[in-house]
């Protein structure tokens, strides 16, 4: 968990520094050999921060002043960049990259596969038969990767292959090193020939635009001269580390990212002795190298610690602009994978790699900040500022209430289905935690009563009808999927493996819609002659009254909450097929089109992609599970059964009483029969329903295949507990979690 003061501090740094959150100084004079040696094995230090990024500070030193100022305006204020200036930027970027040993460049983008994509081109060119290094403004601005081979939901076909990756100047280019040099990596968006978004970043940037527009509209009604608002994010990344030798012995981990089989050891996380404990030396060395590489790439990792489960850890950065945070988290996951491999470890980013212990999330700490660095969700030190704070808080509550199903959809995928509602993870019901300090304020405002508590250390709001706002105004609620934690909301339902771009996009646009509605209500009141502050309070009261059903401060794990949520009319989309249905509804398509995020056919395409990905992921898991059982588990248990039978027969031949031994043998044989029946059930379902429409097929997978796989796992885990551990064909949970 990042310190709550980190957001305001970092945003102020951005406004007074280079505007990108990059506090580095240029290290362009570093030799290419020194740069390659700086893969992250050296010591951390502020002097190295951002040294492998083409930061604003680097551009300031290398570009003509008018060009630099234009780039700066693009990043700080979202102004369009004149393409004519790209030649200057490309030349400076090429020289900087070559000085650091780069040989290639690539446009790096986020297709709808959920991963990242890149195609490398050498700087090499020929001029008059002579080899030269060249990189043009056109090459910087745009590339043309094949669009037909990426998921498109029918928007692209094999004979319509053209797609474009386009430079995103708001996210700094960076260097990725290898043993032979480096690659200049250019963050980009990815769109089709006909303009559809084929990535997750394009809609995210659009949502940032809409949130800024709506929030600036509200701020100006409040009397502020804001020019731009950005959503800010700090994504806590949870993960497991295991030895590579154990990972290599688990084909399920290699293929699916999670253990499809595995009996739980006697000790898991029951003693709660791992959380915040002393960090294992191997893990600490891994963390140090990851942090060193991350710092050089301008990723402000701040916190590291043990998580709850054995061999589970967390890395958390300081907050930065949302679109930059999305890029940096994707980079961080790749750094972690590479560093782990080099150190004889494997990093597991799946939401539920092990049954029976904590899953891994990617808690998204979300807020809004204006172009002066002020956090709009932080209680202020004046009466007016506190009313403004309540206005924005209410807008978030209203946005989550109205678009809760979309937020649930944003975190829906096969991996997260295993996590949500399980150990230390919030349930699938989207609710908002405001805490015992903030909720009474809004409730008192709603009912017109005063809830002031003179015993608290408070900041008076200056209005008799309102209680007081305390700066540290909430406790923590680890069970809530969307919790206010002092000066931000923590979207805890996001899964550890997924890109944060989609959840961030949906939160942004949901809050933008609420801000627009509240701004319209405020404008009507003020035009009717009502003073600003009473008008704001009336709007807060109106929208909180309509949205308060989504506020829940209790234990989200309690089954009674499910009943209470149903009474309140809150949806409970328990699995991915249910959660994705919202994308197939006309209101969703209209909503996204109204805010310029997607056209209706793009929403339909995303629905098709996500349903298909769910089906394919579970199909892969089922086939892999069957293969492990047939080629590993069954041969092992048949041998064990024969050995037991031979031993019982030999003992009986000596005239020894063997009735109890026969019972043990019979129980073992019965367990094998149970496993074989479960195998047949899964095998039948794997081939079933492939001719159904994808939504119907997905429903069959969720309702029948997933439970059948659970039964097969239980049968195999029972056999594992009764079989000679030296003969078991796969590394056990004990080895994976404790060695």
Keywords summarizing the entry:
4 domains; single chain; alpha+beta; globular; 739 residues; 24 helices
What does it look like?
It is a single chain. This protein is of the alpha+beta class. It has four domains: 23-199, Glutamine synthetase, N-terminal domain (Ubiquitin-like (UB roll), Roll); 202-236 and 362-598, no CATH class; 237-262 and 271-360, Creatine Kinase, Chain A, domain 2 (2-Layer Sandwich); 610-738, Up-down Bundle (Four Helix Bundle (Hemerythrin (Met), subunit A)). Helix content is 48%, strand content 13%. It is built from 24 helices and 18 strands. Strands 1, 2, 5, 6, 7 and 8 form a six-stranded mixed β-sheet that branches. Strands 13-9-15-18-17-16 form a six-stranded mixed β-sheet, sandwiched between helices. The chain has a four-stranded antiparallel β-sheet with strand order 11-12-10-14. α15 (435-447) packs across α17 (532-547) and α21 runs antiparallel to α22. The longest helix has 54 residues, at 600-653.
Q: Note the overall shape.
A: globular
Main sheet summary: 6 strands, mixed
Number of helices: 24
Strand runs, count: 18
Distance between termini? 27 Å
Mean pLDDT: 86
- The helix/strand class is alpha+beta
In percent, how much strand structure appears in the residues?
5-15%
What's the short story on this structure?
With 739 residues, the chain is α+β, with helices and mostly antiparallel strands. The protein has 24 helices and 18 strands. The protein has four domains: 23-199, Roll (Ubiquitin-like (UB roll)); 202-236 and 362-598, no CATH class; 237-262 and 271-360, Creatine Kinase, Chain A, domain 2; 610-738, Four Helix Bundle (Hemerythrin (Met), subunit A).
């Amino acid at each position: 968990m990042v310190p709550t003061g980190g957001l305001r501090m970092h945003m102020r740094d951005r406004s007074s520094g280079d505007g990108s959150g990059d506090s580095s100084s240029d290290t362009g004079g570093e030799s290419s050999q020194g740069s390659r040696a700086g893969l992250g094995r050296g010591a951390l230090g502020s002097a190295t921060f951002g040294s492998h990024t083409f930061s604003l500070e680097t551009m300031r030193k290398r570009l003509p002043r008018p060009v630099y100022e234009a780039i700066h305006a693009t990043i700080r204020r979202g102004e369009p960049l004149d393409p004519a200036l790209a030649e200057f930027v490309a030349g400076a970027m090429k020289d900087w990259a070559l000085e650091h040993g780069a040989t290639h460049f690539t446009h790096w983008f986020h297709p709808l596969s959920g991963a990242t994509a890149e195609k490398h081109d050498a700087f090499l060119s020929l001029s008059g038969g002579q080899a030269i290094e060249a990189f043009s403004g056109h090459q910087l601005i745009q590339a043309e990767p094949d669009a037909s081979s990426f998921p498109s939901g029918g928007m692209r076909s094999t004979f319509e292959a053209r797609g474009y990756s386009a430079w995103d100047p708001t996210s700094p280019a960076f260097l990725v090193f290898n043993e032979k040099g480096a690659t200049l990596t250019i963050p980009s968006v990815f769109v089709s020939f006909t303009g559809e978004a084929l990535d997750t970043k394009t809609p995210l940037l659009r949502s940032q635009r809409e949130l800024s527009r709506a929030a600036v509209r509200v701020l100006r009604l409040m009397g502020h001269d804001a020019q731009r608002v950005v959503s800010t994010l700090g994504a806590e990344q949870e993960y497991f580390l295991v030895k590579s030798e154990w990972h290599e012995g688990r084909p399920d981990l290699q293929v699916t990212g999670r253990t499809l089989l595995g009996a739980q050891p006697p000790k898991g996380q029951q003693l709660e002795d791992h959380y915040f404990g002393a960090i294992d030396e191997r893990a600490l060395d891994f963390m140090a190298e990851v942090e060193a590489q991350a710092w050089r790439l301008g990723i402000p990792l701040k916190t590291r610690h043990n998580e709850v489960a054995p061999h589970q850890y967390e890395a958390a950065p300081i907050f930065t602009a949302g679109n930059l945070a999305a890029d940096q988290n994707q980079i961080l996951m790749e750094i972690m994978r590479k560093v782990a491999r080099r150190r004889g470890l494997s990093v597991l980013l799946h939401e539920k790699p092990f049954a029976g212990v904590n899953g891994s999330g990617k808690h998204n700490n979300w807020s809004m900040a204006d172009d002066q660095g002020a956090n709009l969700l932080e209680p202020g030190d004046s009466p007016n500022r506190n009313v403004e704070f309540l206005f924005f808080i209410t807008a978030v509550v209203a946005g989550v209430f109205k678009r809760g199903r979309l937020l649930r959809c944003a975190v829906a995928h096969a991996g997260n289905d295993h996590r949500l509602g399980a150990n230390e993870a919030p349930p699938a019901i989207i609710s908002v935690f405001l805490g015992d300090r903030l909720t009474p304020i809004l409730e008192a405002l709603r009912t017109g009563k005063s809830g002031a508590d003179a015993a608290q250390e408070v900041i008076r709001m200056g209005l008799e009808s309102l209680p007081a706002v305390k700066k540290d105004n909430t406790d923590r609620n680890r069970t809530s999927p969307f919790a206010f934690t002092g000066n931000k909301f923590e979207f805890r339902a996001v899964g550890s493996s997924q890109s944060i771009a989609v959840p961030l996009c949906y939160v942004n646009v949901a809050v933008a819609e609420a801000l627009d509605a509240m701004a319209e209500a405020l404008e009507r009141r003020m035009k009717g002659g009502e003073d600003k502050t009473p008008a704001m309070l009336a709007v807060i009261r109106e929208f909180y009254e309509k949205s308060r059903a989504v506020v829940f401060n209790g234990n989200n794990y309690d089954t009674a909450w499910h009943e209470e949520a149903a009474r309140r009319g809150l949806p409970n989309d328990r699995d991915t097929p249910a959660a994705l249905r919202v994308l197939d509804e006309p209101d969703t398509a209209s909503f996204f089109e109204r805010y310029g995020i997607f056209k209706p056919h793009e929403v339909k395409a995303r629905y098709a992609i996500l349903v298909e990905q769910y089906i394919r992921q579970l199909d892969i898991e089922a086939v892999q599970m069957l293969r492990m059982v047939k080629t590993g588990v069954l041969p092992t248990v048949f041998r064990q059964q024969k050995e037991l039978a031979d031993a019982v027969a030999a003992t009986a031949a000596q005239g020894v009483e063997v009735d109890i031994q026969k019972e043990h043998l019979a129980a073992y044989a019965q367990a094998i029969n149970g496993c074989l029946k479960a195998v047949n059930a899964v095998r039948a379902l794997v081939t079933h329903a492939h001719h159904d429409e994808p939504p119907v097929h997905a429903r069959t997978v969720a309702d029948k295949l997933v439970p059948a796989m659970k039964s097969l796992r239980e049968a195999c885990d029972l056999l594992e507990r009764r079989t000679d551990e030296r003969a078991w064909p796969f590394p056990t949970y004990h080895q994976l979690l404790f060695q």
